[in-house]
Amino acid sequence: MKAAFAVFLLILVGEVHAQESFVTVDGHRFHYYSKGLKKRKPGEPVLVFENGMGMGLGNWNSVIGELAQTAPVFSYDRAGVEKSEKIYRMPTVREVADNLKSILKTLNIAPPYVLVGHSMGGLYIRGYAGHYPDDVSGLVFLDPADFTETKENWNDIFRQLQVPEKRIDEMLYERLYTPANADSANYGPWSELQVLRALRKTDFAEVASLPVPNVPICFIVGGKFEVPPDRRSKDYDHARFFEIKTNFNIERWKKFIDSSSKGGTLLFLSKSGHYVHHDDPKAVIAAIKMMMESLGKTR
Where is the signal peptide (predicted)? Predict the structure, then answer.
């Protein structure tokens, strides 16, 4: 009986140190989750997670629990996504960075941070790292929206596939310049897509101009082609397009890693799709733990 009570007490104590709640910043409520902050040591980095486009913080359930045993963790829903309140301003890179900065400051979660971003979240952690480089001690990109690509890079893929130049121009227009009506019911996800399209039009000039903090950088890339047959292009070999694009991305991301003297890692998971942390959580957890070990900040 005493043993059973002791086990129950340990479970209860573990739950007390995990918190899912709301914080109000500039008059707007944000939903967040944190764990391990009460036991944080001085100077210990916090793992801060940025979700993919339109995704809530539950998207990290496959990895965040185990990572919380390595370091304190923090995740949240961006404005207009899941349980966080809508803010009728475009979620630009600067807007999202400033919101996150204010949230962390309001909750007294001081730097340093290891930022972990999936998909669109990868773009947003790049923005945060550029605007607040002194806050960051590491960057982990999970199959990110490619903030290093240019329109010419995109067109070069189709040239390798021997798509006619006229059709290439038409597809580029369809991708970036087709007007989109505002979707107020889903303002968060819709507006994030518009921000991504606007950045692609300028070859991500706003992001490219930002400094890269001199910290370890990790990219984890999914190599599994997932487009269902009914959604594949009739203009080109879609599987071959994915292969070429992935190879181009990897070459640019390797250069991005080299921009930091701290170096880093690029992990290619051939059996994983875009949601690499769902398809191979063990590999993702191991890579993040390896970064924490390189910082000398593991528990």
Answer: 1-18
Closest CA to 277 of 146, 113, 117: 117
- Residue 294's pLDDT band (cuts 50, 70, 90): confident
Could you count the other beta carbons within 10 Å of the beta carbon of residue 8?
Answer: 10
Give the Cα separation of 203 and 260 in Å (integer): 21
d(CA 215, CA 98): 21
Domain count, the chain: 1
CA-to-CA distance for 39 and 17, rounded, in angstroms? 8
Residue 269 belongs to what H/E stretch? Answer: strand 264-269
In a domain, 246, yes or no: yes
pTM comes to 0.92
Q: Provide the domain limits for residue 287.
A: 21-294
* Distance in angstroms (rounded) separating the CA atoms of residues 241 and 146: 15
Q: Is residue 15 part of a domain?
A: no
The answer as to whether 9 is a domain residue is no
pLDDT tens, position by position, 257-267: 999 999 899 99
**Structure confidence by residue, pLDDT tens digits, 169-224:** 999 999 999 988 888 888 888 999 999 999 999 999 999 999 999 999 999 999 99
pLDDT tens string 20-43: 999 999 999 999 999 999 999 999
Rounded distance between C-alpha atoms, residue 141 and residue 198, angstroms = 21
Measured from the Cβ of residue 227, the count of other Cβ atoms closer than 10 Å reads 12
Percentage of the chain exceeding pLDDT 90 = 87
- Quick one: tokens of 140? 């982990």
For the domain that residue 190 is a member of, what is the CATH number?
Answer: 3.40.50.1820
